[in-house]
């Protein structure tokens, strides 16, 4: 019984020693990987990799740690040693996560009986777009030796203290004290790595640990909310401001030959000012309801027809066909940003689709549906499920200009009034993007 209790007490301590050594090594080399990712940003764009290769070789010689850099297609651009095989299981999994912009996987514990190198990978990012990844193959011999010494010390300490420990309190104390502390330690490391949505359980804990857990959860929630507002504001503002500025420039350039565009130049500039004001308010608010709006319902069909006047001229200037389909009146929430939504959908259709592009407004039960259909190559079933995700772009369109934020903003605008965005393949090929928003039943047409 005493031996069993000793093992029960030793297992979480041993796991903590091995896991802590693994995390310490991982975090120490993560800073180096971040530095290489920063240094690789320019070479991946310009193709000048001589200096990057020299840095990798010097680092390898100094720290005995191989380094290599790959592009988004997993081609090795620079390496400190030859023979890198990115198809190895550990490298393949790390590159899958890193090139997708996700957090790196938790490193395995450094048990003495395990061998191999630790993979530390960081994405190379420019303006929200992943260009490649910087990868370190970190030797783990010293870390495993340190864990082995720690385990031997732990074993010796347990053998010495077995006779002095009261059998009735070993198991509950070990489980009650070490497990919540280990949970809190794991959660702290997760937050350090950027996983700000990490939380710890406070059920069944001692009062002091429960207060500590509540304080940690409150801190993590505040950090998560602040980071989310910051990222969304920067991403949305940069994308939202680009569209009206480009539109205004097009209108002004077309004054000499396209008279319908004349009255839209000043309108778009004014709209830019309203966007800046709205984004500024959103940056300081957690709830969409904090944004003030009109009480009068908006006729979606009428708002779309008014915006299409300018877009018909823009499409005509580029020899593209824009078809205005069925326009069924229907009242929607007045705060719906119809101009922003239509600008994104028509801009995407002209860049990624093929003419003719057809716009229509219909009703479907309790929803008013704004549809934009193009006749391009469309998207596969897997890609259709990802439409609207931030920074996501189809593999067919990654070489084209853009940030992958347009449809994410459309989805956010629709959700703000209780709506949704649906992408589907129409009969005859192409792609249909539907913005479905609730119909205001008492709207007077």
UniProtKB/TrEMBL annotation:
<dbReference type="Pfam" id="PF00512">
    <property type="entry name" value="HisKA"/>
</dbReference>
<keyword id="KW-0418">Kinase</keyword>
<dbReference type="GO" id="GO:0005524">
    <property type="term" value="F:ATP binding"/>
</dbReference>
<keyword id="KW-0547">Nucleotide-binding</keyword>
<dbReference type="InterPro" id="IPR036097">
    <property type="entry name" value="HisK_dim/P_sf"/>
</dbReference>
<protein>
    <recommendedName>
        <fullName>Signal transduction histidine-protein kinase/phosphatase MprB</fullName>
        <ecNumber>2.7.13.3</ecNumber>
    </recommendedName>
</protein>
<feature type="domain" description="Histidine kinase">
    <location>
        <begin position="236"/>
        <end position="441"/>
    </location>
</feature>
<keyword id="KW-0460">Magnesium</keyword>
<dbReference type="GO" id="GO:0004721">
    <property type="term" value="F:phosphoprotein phosphatase activity"/>
</dbReference>
<keyword id="KW-0378">Hydrolase</keyword>
<feature type="transmembrane region" description="Helical">
    <location>
        <begin position="150"/>
        <end position="170"/>
    </location>
</feature>
<keyword id="KW-0808">Transferase</keyword>
<keyword id="KW-0346">Stress response</keyword>
<keyword id="KW-0067">ATP-binding</keyword>
<dbReference type="GO" id="GO:0000155">
    <property type="term" value="F:phosphorelay sensor kinase activity"/>
</dbReference>
<keyword id="KW-0812">Transmembrane</keyword>
<dbReference type="InterPro" id="IPR050980">
    <property type="entry name" value="2C_sensor_his_kinase"/>
</dbReference>
<feature type="domain" description="HAMP">
    <location>
        <begin position="175"/>
        <end position="228"/>
    </location>
</feature>
<keyword id="KW-0843">Virulence</keyword>
<dbReference type="InterPro" id="IPR003594">
    <property type="entry name" value="HATPase_dom"/>
</dbReference>
<dbReference type="InterPro" id="IPR005467">
    <property type="entry name" value="His_kinase_dom"/>
</dbReference>
<keyword id="KW-0904">Protein phosphatase</keyword>
<dbReference type="InterPro" id="IPR003660">
    <property type="entry name" value="HAMP_dom"/>
</dbReference>
<keyword id="KW-1003">Cell membrane</keyword>
<dbReference type="Pfam" id="PF02518">
    <property type="entry name" value="HATPase_c"/>
</dbReference>
<keyword id="KW-0464">Manganese</keyword>
<keyword id="KW-0902">Two-component regulatory system</keyword>
<dbReference type="InterPro" id="IPR036890">
    <property type="entry name" value="HATPase_C_sf"/>
</dbReference>
<dbReference type="Pfam" id="PF00672">
    <property type="entry name" value="HAMP"/>
</dbReference>
<keyword id="KW-0472">Membrane</keyword>
<keyword id="KW-1133">Transmembrane helix</keyword>
<keyword id="KW-0597">Phosphoprotein</keyword>
<dbReference type="InterPro" id="IPR004358">
    <property type="entry name" value="Sig_transdc_His_kin-like_C"/>
</dbReference>
<dbReference type="InterPro" id="IPR003661">
    <property type="entry name" value="HisK_dim/P_dom"/>
</dbReference>
<dbReference type="GO" id="GO:0005886">
    <property type="term" value="C:plasma membrane"/>
</dbReference>
